[in-house]
Amino acid sequence: MSKRSLKMIIVILSILVVISGVMFYSQGANKDSTKFIQKDFKVKEESEAKSKVDVYGLGIGDYAPEFNLDNLEGEDIHLSDYQGKYLLLNFWATWCPPCRKEMPDLNQFHQKNKDEFVVVGVNIGEDKENVKKFMETGGYDYPILLDRDRQVAFLYRASVIPTSYFIDPEGRIQYIKRGMVTKDELEEIKEDLMNR
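Structure tokens predicted for Peroxiredoxin (196 residues):
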């Protein structure tokens, strides 16, 4: 075997090791990103809260950033329109399999709790007519806002979809769920928030 062939094999093996390391690290990070993030304001220190903001974009206890988007009826809706109620703000897209899988549970939760806990879907980057058709075909009736230019998703650092923000009546983020939320998790979070 020539020196040139040996060098080429070493370079290829080095690249494979680096790629394997990146894939291993990414899988570990994704597992952590689907867990709940919760903050006990009396126990956590400011530096710990700051590190969560650095990692996730917005921290537990932060005020949810104000925005306005059109709904499927063309009305201009502001986040502050929901102040005074519990709010589940869910970032999603029609092409996203986990988003589609959680939608029946979100819709059922909406129907059961709409007087005290509002579910609002924020569709990221899709055409109004396609989203409207998707919602009608699925029989989903919770409010949908259209983030056509993805600016609100960017503001909320919703780089993984689905991502759900659970916001209290004062407008503070109380839970963040990255990845699909289940019916049991919805009930557990609602119970916790309502009993504080």
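Confidence is low (pLDDT under 50) at residues 24-56.
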